[in-house]
Each structure stands twice: as structure tokens, then as C-alpha cells.
Amino acid sequence: MKQLGLVHCPRTHWTCGCRGSNRICAVQMKVVFMSGRFLTDSLLFASVLQLMLVSLSAMMSHGFKSSKQDFTFGPWKVTAARNHIMKSKDIERLAEEMNMPSLPEMLFGDNVLRIQHTDGFGIEFNAIDALKRVNNMEDAVKVACAQEWQESRADSEHSKEVVRPYDWTYTTDYRGTLIGEDMQMEVTKTSERIDLEKLKAREQIMFFDEVLLFEDELHDHGVSMISVKIRVMPTSFFLLLRFFLRVDGVLIRINDTRLYYEAGKSYMLREFSTRESRITELKNVPPALYTDPNEIAQHLTLKLTECERLELPHPNSAADEELQ
Fold it and tell me: Which of 262, 264, 270 is nearest to 316 (CA)?
């Protein structure tokens, strides 16, 4: 009697080894028969049922199930909420409102990561506002890239669909949305940097979560996605919003927004950076790293860095407040 094996498609994220992430993706699993003999009807039914249960379990644990987590950090409340992928009709309506021919195939419109003070002000990260930062008009640089992509995929049935009058890579320089009805944080330029060495120190992680905002696989020839994750320590919190783009055979781009707050300070530090390299510039980098944002980032050319302070509305909002 032959065995039934489950093989995960390389484009899915059910395991940590795929693209270096536990993120959810489209379910694309196939059944592989390990011998030439046919299964009996009963065994086939049992095997398929087992496959369905595995798929359902994976979906429930990787983001298709609605969930919401709250964590209190002194006067701050961190909220991580995730929900289902937007319905097709809602995506079509939103695309029309944004004047874009299409939107990412996996759009989590209700997913959000929010950091809010008891006084009402704060910052949040959501998919809709991230997409509002995508260029919905023809851009010479983006179109040139699309033409190069098209040439590299001349045999693809989708290659003729790439050059469009909008940024088909969904590249966004989104850095978060300031919130607050009566007051908001004020953004000012600064030369102060986040002390990344300090963040490397071993410290208890009181809360951690990651939220996927959108993802698109560019007709199976790359990936464009943005996600946000946060970790809260006893005296600070650190957040990373990352947009990752890989166009197979053309380029890799990463836009990072890092946000750091230390208890007692009257401001947050926010750093935005853009890293990008053409594939031709990565000849000495193992191709296996191209799919892992954490690994490939250090090999990309730094194009831009901007540092800002998010000033709290009044000093008393942060200073001398006792953490719980």
C-alpha cells in the first residue's frame, strides 16, 4: 500500500523555511503518490479528508481566523487585529475609489496594528493607507522596470499584462497613520538615530505580534508585500513595518519603517529607509537568499534614510509615568 505525501508549493508560507516567514498565503498544496499503484476508494477518501483538515488547521492558525490582541504598556495600548481577506466586490470598489486598475490579490483591509495613548493620540498601520501611498499614475522609472521584466519573461502568458499606467509593484513609502481626534503627535526631522545595538541586548519580551497588510505575487513572478510587527519590552517598544518587493530577474527592494519608544521620553523615533538592487548587482549573493527579506536586506544598496521624531502632544504624556 503506497503512502500519501503532502508537498507544499514553494510559493506558500506554511513553513518557516519558505521565504523566511510564517505568513499566510494562498493554499496551493498538491497530493503526491509515492508509488505507481492506485489507492482504494476508502483510502483515497481518508487521505483527501486528512489533507482538508491539515489545510483548514493551517489556515486557522496562520491568519484566516479573525483575532484581536491588546496589550497595555503604561499609558499606551497596543492592538493587533487581523481579519479575513477582503471580498472581491469590496476590492473592486476600493480599486475604483483609488483610481487603480487592480489591487493586491491578498488584501487584508481590516488588519491593523495600533499604538494608542490614553489621551487618544497615537499611530496605526493599515493596508488601505499603505495603498494610498502607491503611485496610481504612470511613472517612467516603474514602467522602465516593467519593460525589463517583460523582456525577461517573454515566454510568459502574463508578460504582456505588466506595463500598466500605475505602479504595478505596489511600492509604498507608507510610514504609518497618525491618529487622534483632539490631538496628534507632531513630526519633526532629526539627526538622532535609533540605537540598534541597545535593542540587541537581552531583554524580556512582554508582547510580540505580526500583522500582514497585503501581498501580491505579481503573476507568479515575484512578490510584493507589506507587514508590520512589534515587540514590547519592560521599558520600551520597537516596531518594524516592512515593504518587500522581488521582481524575478529584475530587482529586489525593501522599504523599512522602524519606530522606537522608550518609557519616560516625550517623543518616538521613526526611521525610514529604502534599499534596492538590481539582480545583476547581486551576482555574488546566493539566489536562495532572494526570497528571504531578513537575509537579503544586508546585501541591498541603501538608497535613502530619513529620521524623524514624533513629538507627543505634551511632555506629561510620557515623562515619569509608571509602567504596569
Answer: 264
CB 266 within 8 A of CB 309: no
Please answer whether residues 172 and 244 qualify as being in contact, where contact means their C-beta atoms are separated by less than 8 angstroms. no
Q: Count, in order, helices (H) and strands (E) of the chain.
A: 6, 15
The β-bridge partners of 260 are: 238, 269
pLDDT (tens digit, 9 = 90+) per residue, 32-70?
333 333 344 454 455 545 555 544 544 544 445 689 999
Residue 73 CB partners (closer than 8 Å, separation 6+): 206, 207, 232, 237, 263, 323, 324
Kindly report the CA angle at 129 between 123 and 134, in degrees rounded to 5? 135
**Nearest in space to 267 (alpha carbons), one of 198, 187, 196:** 187
pTM value > 0.85: no
Nearest to 218 by CA among 112, 315, 104, 78: 104
DSSP codes joined into one string, 88-129: HHHHHHHHHHTT-S---SEE-TT-EEEEEETTS-EEEEEHHH
Structure confidence by residue, pLDDT tens digits, 84-133: 999 999 999 999 999 888 899 999 999 999 999 999 999 999 999 999 99
Q: How far apart are CA 211 and CA 23, in angstroms?
A: 9
The residues, ordered by sequence, that sit 6+ positions from 219 with a Cβ below 8 Å of its Cβ are 156, 158, 161, 162
pLDDT band at 310 (very low <50, low <70, confident <90, very high): very high
Check if the beta carbon of residue 124 is closer than 8 Å to that of residue 112: yes
Q: How much is the pLDDT for 64? A: 58
Q: What is d(CA 273, CA 30) in angstroms, rounded to the nearest whole number? A: 39
Q: Cα 287 to chain center, whole Å?
A: 21
